[in-house]
From TrEMBL:
One Pfam family this sequence matches: Zn_clus
Taxonomic lineage of the native organism: Eukaryota, Fungi, Dikarya, Ascomycota, Pezizomycotina
The protein, known as: Zn(2)-C6 fungal-type domain-containing protein
Species of origin: Rhizodiscina lignyota
Domain annotation Zn(2)-C6 fungal-type: ranges: 16-46
Subcellular compartments: Nucleus
Amino acid sequence: MTTLEGPRGRLRSHHACLNCRRKKTRCPGEKPACSSCVRLNQACSYASVARAPPGERSEDRLAHLEEKLDLILSGTGTSDRTPRPSHASRQEQPLGQNNDISPRSYPATPPEPNYSATRPFSLGFRSKHGSLRPSSSVIARAIELYFEYCHRQPIWCFNREEVEDHDRLADDLVCSILALTSRFWRERDQLQDYGDKARSLIMLHVANGTVELTTIESLCLLSFSFFIDADMHLGRFHLGLAFQLCRSAKLDLESTYVLQSPTTERKKRLFWSLQILEQSYGQQTGLLSISTEVWRPSHLCNDGGQKDLESRPPPLPLDNIGSTSTDPGIWSATVPLGWVWSRARTYVSNCARNQLKEPWRHDSMYATVLSDLLDTENMIPISHRYDSVKFYERKAEELKMNRAYWIPWLKSQFTYHAIHSVLNHPFLYIVAAQHNQNLGIPNTFWRKSSELVLLHATWIVRLIDMASDKQVRLIDPFFGHVAAIAATVHVYYCCATDPRLKYKSNIDFAKCRKFLKSFASFSHACEDLGQTLDKMTRIASGSQSTDIEDWVPSKIHLSIPLMWDILQFNCKSEPRDMPTGGLLHPSLVPPVTRKDKEENHTLEIIVATSPEVTVNTADGGQAVPTSSYRTTVASAPDASGTIPLPDVLVAPTDSLMLNTPWLWADPSQFDMGGMSYQDSEATVGDIGGSTWWDFGNL
């Protein structure tokens, strides 16, 4: 089993058994069967290895001495080594302090056990490939943080019981979990290297032809970690590699799942987790980008989903959390909505390249995306709808205990309103009107879309308020992106004619901006997005200050390049401007083409009063302006026994949507628990029960 080598008689095992080598764990080396295999009741066997020549023995002894020296040096404390530049060094405040929506919006990160006395990050053991595996207590803590912050938000690779045995977890999966959760540790500087270790182990699996399910799961975790850190190139590289490995294993075909196995559901969850990352962060342009049409949900296909097994994608995973036997579960319900969101992202990309067909045409992309959204909305069970779950009535403790349900539920709500906000964003059509004269003609579409975008952007603020009030911690940068999109809408309406709408848009903009900045302590991507929003705000206000609490402008200047960066989630912070994210050798780095983001690339938005309309009887009088009115609706007491405060509502004279008076409501009278309003005095223009939250929810 062992041989004596060198003058000191060092004992060394030549090689591990096949089982330990496959799992990348230390092998005791006993023969004919090692104690590890005996304990696990597995057949133990060794591969035959030829004895090395004397010259190679010297090299092997030198490598052993170097390995021992590394252990000795690491045992003196990893703090002596120069840490890699990390996001923590750029943040003076720890996670969860002084950067949240409100003083009690998000709970601070729970205190971790004091590991500094035992130095778990340095007192580990080296596996076969030289990776430093942390202690079992560190692995347990990393897994706990994963399920507290990242599980089903948005990825869902494994359940808790599938990773209970820490000793049997593959090294690459352990390192990937540590890399993803490192942003939530106090010792985050000491955990930065685990991302590189995970990448090395994954590439060894690929090179040796030993790729397992945990290898692809590790790629999924790493890609999500890179997306959080705004390293889009590395994130998309690892995501693309994971897709290629899925194709090699045929995990992208329904025929693979005909025969059930213990890992069938885990494979489904992995595949659709990769799809969710692609929908939110994948590349939308370029010849090599994946067409979103390939993953059109079966209920949206023209053939009714009657494809053969070799061309159908895998079924959605089973989700028993908060669901019944008749629906797939809330996490699975977010997948079709995510696909429509990816179509909306493609729509924005087309607009940025001046490839926009008039949105009112039946064959336009606007029409098809909106049609897919309505079809998908109809597929969502009633039990998961806003009015059914009554999120606003739930206690914070209840939501915290059932995060696995409520985080995906919030994701579906944010996605739904984000799609409407993007499709109807006025910036898209103002820019497009410069290249398409048909878009420059005032028409019904302009008026209706401007009201729809304000409706859904206000719903996004409503959801932000509820998440803050209920102390729900959100981690996925997608939520920050949606808040930034809503902020650009409210900036646009800060120069509205109605002073109450001006004031309300100003308040909502501040909420979106504060919510986005709450992600900056752990996400480079949202930090970059916040900086872009600040630059756009300074240009819009014409001052160097980003504090526009009392800002009531008569006109604003919207920066065209910065608006595209926000809508397309382009993360381009100055310290990390490498276009390849450290992926390529400098000889392959393409030249950087920077956009000029000066004020001469702006749109000037000027306050305009309601237009005077001349009645034309030829069109049936459709252009007749409506009268301004005030309306009130009586409501019953809510569940808490209180009656919401009254809200004064006034519609502009040129509004087509008489049933959305909330657009001009006074925000100071919002009631978080109530869903309707009352007034003791009845006035003209009563719309018979139409109130703030009766419209536009999912």
